[in-house]
């Protein structure tokens, strides 16, 4: 696990070597063939019939029996959009597309701006802040809670439970830690089940209502397989809608402030903020990639693959592909994009919340370049990246001004 986490904290040297090597590179830490070049990533994402998403997010850790017993007290086990293919994927994706439509996202912008102002206002006079805890985690949590229609008082519990779900499957925990995490996950599932049942009886125009109407149509109580499927997809949306944006809020600030010229330029020229958001996503993709399973014998980039082989499709590596992005290892908010980056995926499984994430980072940068132009990293505080591939972000980011 130590070797795996070391790779997770900085996978970019492995990516660079894989892009230069002929064919694909098998990476033992991933137990998969690494798809590292932009063109190959684009090809895999465009061919879901050849590269299935069924095992897109294989856990690093299998919980023990005591933790599994706690999970059995929850409500889940349904197929989620992330790991579905074909017609099933389209069915599960449809309510997300509706719930995260441009109109729905636009309607949420005043809420986002208001919460961003409040969060920054809470520490603006302090002269220092730990960015991840004070802003990068709370803002996306409140936003996804708002879109789901959760009571604000329930959002911390919901986000905490979602975080424990990730921890349980991707972090080494002792038995006591696993059981505690599993208990929080089961509690989250019952909380979401309560909201789903409420929307079934009294429909509302929020994302929970969209998912309930799409996955459990008709009259009557929420029950059976539909119940588990609704809860599983609500849990997945809660986790994905929070972690991806938190990651981008962390890395965007990290890379802007590491190069003082970039930060000062952004403060002087706020019209560059949309470009800065895209550069942050390209340079350090918030989700580094997902797994795909080969469905038939085929060849990719000169490497023969068998049915059942696993490939890891690296959005993070595609963003550093020198054949697509000139001087790709340099963070540059004035970069003229030569090609669309793949940080939010592509094709049927492209991130449905990408515009929501972009707006949150844009609003944040507009706010802090105006209110805290003297922002800089705290001296003597090394930044360590979280040991995970599903939300690349600093564990802590202490800042001063």
From TrEMBL:
InterPro entries assigned to the protein according to its UniProt record, in alphabetical order: Cyt_P450, Cyt_P450_B, Cyt_P450_CS, Cyt_P450_sf
Pfam families: p450
Keyword DNA damage assigned: no
Highest rank taxon of the organism: Bacteria
Recorded GO MF terms: heme binding; iron ion binding; monooxygenase activity; oxidoreductase activity, acting on paired donors, with incorporation or reduction of molecular oxygen
Keyword presence, Metal-binding: yes
Key words, A-Z: Heme, Iron, Metal-binding, Monooxygenase, Oxidoreductase
Record family assignment: Belongs to the cytochrome P450 family.
PANTHER family named among the record's database cross-references: P450, PUTATIVE (EUROFUNG)-RELATED (PTHR46696)
This protein's name: Cytochrome P450
